[in-house]
Hints:
Helices cover 38% and strands 17% of the residues. The chain is of the alpha+beta class. The chain folds into 2 domains: 11-96, Orthogonal Bundle (Arc Repressor Mutant, subunit A); 103-214, Nonspecific Lipid-transfer Protein, Chain A. The strands form 2 sheets. The chain has a 5-stranded mixed β-sheet with strand order 5-4-3-6-7. It is globular and about 60 Å long. It starts with 10 loop residues before the first helix and ends in a 22-residue tail after the last helix. InterPro entries: HTH_HxlR, SCP2_sterol-bd_dom, SCP2_sterol-bd_dom_sf, WH-like_DNA-bd_sf, WH_DNA-bd_sf. Keywords: DNA-binding, Transcription, Transcription regulation. Residues 10-101 form the HTH hxlR-type domain.
Amino acid sequence: MTTTGYGQYCPISRALDVLGERWSLLIVRDLLLGTTRFNDLARGLPGLSRSLLAKRLRQFERAGLLDKVGSEYLMTAAGRDLERILFGLGAWGARWSFGDPRPEELDPAVLVWWMHTRLDTSALPGKRQVFAVRFTDRPHRFWIVVESGVPSVCDADPGYPVDVAINSDVGSLYQVWLGKLSLAQAVRTGRLTFIGATALTRRMSSVLLLSPMAPYVTPAPVDFTTRAS
């Protein structure tokens, strides 16, 4: 018997040999959602060391889940076939184990990074748009810059005029992102505000797409008396 693996001739055991180690499924999640470059994968998984990320990617390449093409990691047919399994796992998690967040899970930098990957830039006019994201309960501030339809995240002021300022506490914005709180309800109760030209702020509901997990998350009851402090 080898020192690695489970030593059982079973498809589930063999699958866990490839995918059962820490961080593996979250790396696969981000690859399936379109992140293809090492630095972008690392930024979306800040708790994962770069050395371990590199190790996992090499393991996936050897297992036939992805190919490295230039500086990009592209999923193979075997890797893409994990989408239905991973989203099924997410649906199970949303139903049976997705309670209130722990404080350490509400990372504003990760949230903004996720949000920028889900912008529908086709609804935006002009060559450049800048969204400033300010968290009312944290000192953090971020800028999402869309250049010719391609979004990027800055954690320092890029020096461009801001088109829309997005203000929210981190918990409420996570709830909107995950579909627990509708964007309209968040705006109506003052938990989320958009400040900018009306023509652009009215488009935010079509620009800010929700998490791919949102369809599986049950919306929370809304207290319409709640207001952001």
